Amino acid sequence: MFTQDTKTVGVAIVEGQILLAKVLQDLVVADPDMELVDFSETASGLRFDRPRPDVILIDYDVSNCDLDVAMQLFARHWKGAHVCVLSSHLRPEIMNRCLALDAIGFVVKDIPPAELLRALKIVASGSMYVDPRVAGRVLQKRALSGSRAGDMNDLSVRETEVIGLIADGLSNKEISARLHLSEKTVKNHVSKIFSKLNISARSQAAVHAIRTGLDTITVNH
After folding, report:
1. Which of 38, 81, 121, 127 is most solvent-facing, going by the fewest CB within 10 Å?
2. Count of CA atoms in the C-beta half-sphere (13 A) of 12
């Protein structure tokens, strides 16, 4: 097992697209803090007699990838390994399904390489990582519907709009322009949001969106 003591993150990759598989393997191998434990085109093809990885990266979109079966295999043979799902879809219902199956990471394929490596390290540590654009859609829909779960009820309507734009990746200046507010007013809203939700970084807004009721949201396209 790879641990924090070794300062090396063990990664297993399940990717059926040959070109993408090569890119993913090269990224992991080139990172001095990571080690490629195993690779396979399918979950069943992984060599489970190898040391348990810290994180398993699996492609949701590949037709021969049945995520339900894959997650059962991981739980049976590599219990404790954290799963990060890769997809080309920015659809909350797909992310919701992955999280319901106990994955704690969801990244979209247009993610920059450096951010993908960061996501894998976050997931390997046991923390959740989700694409903020998906969470942004969830928060925006929730704001429009007037539905807010858990401690989201502590936020005002304006604060809900602001956190939705934060989760969508907008800066304070961009939020200011979008909502026709001064940048100082936006900063004040952000400060109040962080205080009310007990978060300290913009990246946590996406995670917070998932933890406050993603499963209650259905987005139709």
Report:
1. 127
2. 28
Percentage of the residues of the chain whose pLDDT score is greater than 90:
47
Beta-bridge mates of residue 86: 59, 107
The first and second tokens of residue 210, run together, are 């998932």
Whether the Cβ atoms of residue 52 and residue 11 lie closer than 8 Å to each other: no
Residue 73 to residues 26, 46, 157, 205: CA-CA distances in angstroms? Answer: 25, 10, 44, 32
- In terms of pTM, does the model score above 0.85? no
Q: How far is CA 37 from CA 26, 29, 50, 54, 154, in A?
A: 13, 10, 7, 9, 44
Contacts of 177 (CB under 8 A, 6+ apart): none
Residue 176: how many other CB atoms lie within 10 Å: 18
In this predicted model, what pLDDT tens digit does every residue of 111-145 receive, in sequence order? Answer: 999 999 999 998 998 888 888 777 656 555 555 55
Rounded Cα–Cα distance for residues 43 and 133 (Å): 28
Residue with tokens 């990224």: 27
Sheet holding 129-130, edge to edge: 34-40, 9-14, 55-59, 82-87, 105-108, 129-130
Which residue's structure tokens are 């990838």?
A: 65
Task: Tell me the DSSP string of 35-70.
Answer: EEEEEESSGGGS-TTSPPPSEEEEESSSTT--HHHH
> In whole angstroms, what separates CA 160 from the centre of its chain?
21
